Amino acid sequence: MNVSGSGPANAGLLIFRARMDQTRYDYAIVGVGAAGLQLALKMISDDYFNEKSILLIDKDDKSANDRTWCFWEKGETKWDQLATHVWATGLFYNKQETISFDLNPYRYKMVRSAGFYAYAKAEIGKAGNVKWIKDDVENIDGQQIICPDCIYHANHIFDSRIPEEFYEKKDKYHSLIQHFKGWFIRTENPIFNPDTFTMMDYRLKWKDSTSFTYVLPLSSNTVLVEFTLFNDRLLPDEEYDSYLKEYIDTYLGIKNYTVEEVEQGLIPMSDYPFHKHHTKHVTKIGTAGGWVRPSSGYSFKNADRYSTMTVENIKDGRRPEKGIATSRYRTYDSIFLNVLATRNDLGEDIFTRLYTKPAIQSVFRFLDEESSLMEDFKVMFSLNRPQFWRAFFSTFWK
Ligand SMILES: Cc1cc2nc3c(=O)[nH]c(=O)nc-3n(C[C@H](O)[C@H](O)[C@H](O)COP(=O)(O)OP(=O)(O)OC[C@H]3O[C@@H](n4cnc5c(N)ncnc54)[C@H](O)[C@@H]3O)c2cc1C
């Protein structure tokens, strides 16, 4: 069936032409990626939702290793069973120095998406009140989810599709792209220390930009090496490859290796107000709901935290998105993005200050939105540069 221009004006026509799913679901989750699946898992593990019908829709099978999620958290948690690797110590390099940090009581963890999807599917399969459908959502109109051949209804819809308006208007905000390419490589000889990962290495940069490599050793002869940029333009594919080759050759000192897998992606880093796309019956979630921390691109753990908040809000009769991604941290992020967007060459210096001046544990608490005001000031003051103060005053006195 050919559906076009599926706005409210022709919704009646669509209803007429498309098949209707006769069930009215209590909740629907559109897009079951990191955020949608974590929300679904939270719902099915809470008795409140036992009697609620939940529809999950994704256009994809959700089985590929299309993401490698890294995050920090304290001690052992439910994610350990899915973690490919866990590190207790890290390194940070700039052109002058090497800084090592002990993360204790935190651990840095890697979860690969195929494992997470398989786990989530198994858990969801055990719940009797969840239906998972593969379909391509074209539009959401009120409580209707419009797909090419079927229309579904839900009382409340959680939507992880990024609004078109973001792409049209992001340049009016402080917006960068975190883009990267990584290789899982295997060496013949044991070379790596699997206990320590490299958070950022600024010794190799693309021009004078905020660009670095991070290195995640999985064993003594396997490692994920990823070349990453925080700026406003993607590179031709072969340029990422050439930076990866140079890093492996020059900084890891490895000549013989096999590339076993490739990971590539981009994450929007923006202070665009995603929250304005919530409507009476629709809550935006994930990247589309502003769940990505704009200054860092990290969001896997936010999805954990925000899914819990969403479920608690529903149970307490509040709007599902109440209190999510609207805190003072978004103001700090906006200042941070403002500086990096106007002076992208400052990234090495800024991240050196961030990861060396305050204790790493304070930085993690800050990025996890758990820091005290005093810690916030310590972190923000550690970035003491004129550009920060200018961005700070332009944010508060505009
Ligand atoms: C390669 C990569 C690596 C990353 N690494 C990290 C990391 O190490 N740590 C970290 O914290 N964050 C990381 N991120 C950022 C963030 O955690 C991920 O982007 C995360 O997947 C965002 O979750 P999400 O649910 O918003 O989006 P996704 O996981 O992308 O899920 C969105 C879902 O919506 C579906 N969908 C989209 N449009 C439609 C439609 N029209 N109809 C039906 N379904 C639709 C998609 O198929 C997808 O399943 C990474 C991102 C990428 C791209």
Give a short synopsis of this structure.
By secondary structure, the protein is α/β, with parallel strands linked by helices. It is built from eleven helices and 17 strands. The protein has helices at residues 11-17, 34-44, 113-126, 164-169, 237-251, 300-315, 328-342, 347-356, 360-367, 373-382, 386-396, and strands at residues 19-30, 54-58, 68-74, 83-87, 89-93, 98-102, 106-112, 130-134, 139-141, 144-146, 150-159, 175-187, 196-201, 211-217, 222-231, 257-270, 282-284.
Q: Can you describe this structure?
A:
With 398 residues, this protein is of the alpha/beta class. The chain has three domains: 8-65 and 113-168 and 272-315, FAD/NAD(P)-binding domain (3-Layer(bba) Sandwich), CATH 3.50.50.60; 175-270, D-Amino Acid Oxidase, Chain A, domain 2 (2-Layer Sandwich); 328-396. 31% of the residues lie in helices and 30% in strands. It contains eleven helices and 17 strands. The chain has helices spanning 11-17, 34-44, 113-126, 164-169, 237-251, 300-315, 328-342, 347-356, 360-367, 373-382, 386-396, and strands at 19-30, 54-58, 68-74, 83-87, 89-93, 98-102, 106-112, 130-134, 139-141, 144-146, 150-159, 175-187, 196-201, 211-217, 222-231, 257-270, 282-284. The strands form three sheets. Strands 1, 2, 8, 9, 10, 11 and 17 form a seven-stranded mixed β-sheet that branches. Strand 9 and strand 10 form a beta hairpin. The protein is globular, with a radius of gyration of 22 Å. The relative contact order is 0.14. Mean pLDDT is 92; it is low at 1-12. The structure holds flavin-adenine dinucleotide.
